């Protein structure tokens, strides 16, 4: 694909004064930040500070009320190169009843908006196996995803995002519900991607095993950027030498879907929606807007 000058020099993600309103309530207020090419950025902040809202807005799932977002230099409304973006949403229980196997779900990450590649190449199969091995799930490749635990399903969704070898990988609390051994394997996998130039944006509550990978942290509080700079371990810690402290609710990995009532059911355009249900639907009927 020919890439223009702005694509080569622009940050992977640029968020300019973005305001988002959901259910009639302003959630993000003039958020301004960027994620440079090859950077690994952690987005931190207390529960409800707007982290998921920001990443969902970046991948086009929520509308921008004012301000603008650019991906690889292209304004979001015109951005079409979603195959360059891998997105893993906050953990959900969306796998219940999904009739696909682990291998099928991960393979669906290789879909293009035009549908399945006509012939599944050896490299595609290799990418699927490699991604599953990375998250320690290769031995479950033929199992139904519905038969997996919540943490294992999360690892399958991570593998799905890794298999497409995206230029930009966005993950919302990828470590939630993932055991310590798998967390370390995942950290090693991300380190490998970062070394090869992948841009990574992670929503986290603490850096934990990922700390050594993080180039920069952005801390949100009540829908605004409280801190943007050298890494801090926790969103609630004081990045401004005691003058500012993001609020800290009791934080723990959660299993429940993140969507509150009023969540738009369909994104505005083709986006890399990576829930297991969407993955399975796309495996058979990819549409320009994912079936929802
Ligand atoms: N679809 C929605 N409709 C209305 N309000 C919403 C919607 N999604 C999120 N919100 C509200 O937006 C605010 C920010 O939520 P968001 O999920 O972005 O926070 P977060 O920082 O990711 O929190 P957590 O750490 O708990 O995951 C919350 O007050 C939440 O209730």
UniProtKB/TrEMBL annotation:
InterPro entries: AAA+_ATPase, ABC_transporter-like_ATP-bd, ABC_transporter-like_CS, Metal_Ion_Import_ABC, P-loop_NTPase
Basic and acidic residues bias: start-end ranges: 231-257
Residue ranges crossing the lipid bilayer per the database entry: none
A Pfam family that the UniProt record links to this protein: ABC_tran
Region (Disordered): 229-292
Record domain ABC transporter: where: 13-247
Record's compositionally biased regions (Polar residues): 278-292
Coiled coil: none
Gene Ontology molecular-function annotations: ATP binding
Signal sequence annotation: none
Keyword tags: ATP-binding, Nucleotide-binding, Transport
Family membership: Belongs to the ABC transporter superfamily.
The protein, known as: Metal ABC transporter ATP-binding protein
Biological source species: Catenulispora subtropica
């Amino acid at each position: 694909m020919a890439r223009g000058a702005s694509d080569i020099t622009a940050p992977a993600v640029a968020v300019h004064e973005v305001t988002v309103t959901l259910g009639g309530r302003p959630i993000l207020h003039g958020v301004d930040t960027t994620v440079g090419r090859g950077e690994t950025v952690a987005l931190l902040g207390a529960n409800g500070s707007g982290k998921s809202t920001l990443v969902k807005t970046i991948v086009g799932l929520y509308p921008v009320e004012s301000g603008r977002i650019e991906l690889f230099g292209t304004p979001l409304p015109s951005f079409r190169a979603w195959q360059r973006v891998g997105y893993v949403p906050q953990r959900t229980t969306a796998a219940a009843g999904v009739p696909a196997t682990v291998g099928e779900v991960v393979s669906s990450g290789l879909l293009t908006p035009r549908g399945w590649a006509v012939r599944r190449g050896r490299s595609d199969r290799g990418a699927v196996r490699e991604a599953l091995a990375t998250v320690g799930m290769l031995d479950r490749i033929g199992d139904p995803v519905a038969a997996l635990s919540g943490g294992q399903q999360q690892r399958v969704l991570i593998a799905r995002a890794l298999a497409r070898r995206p230029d930009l990988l966005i993950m919302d609390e990828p470590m939630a519900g993932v055991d310590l051994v798998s967390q370390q394997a995942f950290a090693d996998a991300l380190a490998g991607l970062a070394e090869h130039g992948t841009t990574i944006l992670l929503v986290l509550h603490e850096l934990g095993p990922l700390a050594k990978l993080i180039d920069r942290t952005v801390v949100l509080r009540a829908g605004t950027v409280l801190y943007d700079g050298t890494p801090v371990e926790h969103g609630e810690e004081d990045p401004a030498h005691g003058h500012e402290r993001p609020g800290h609710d009791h934080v723990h990995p959660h299993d429940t879907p993140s969507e509150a009532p009023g969540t738009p059911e369909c994104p505005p355009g083709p986006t890399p929606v990576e829930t297991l249900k969407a993955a399975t639907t796309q495996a058979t009927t990819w549409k320009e807007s994912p079936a929802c």
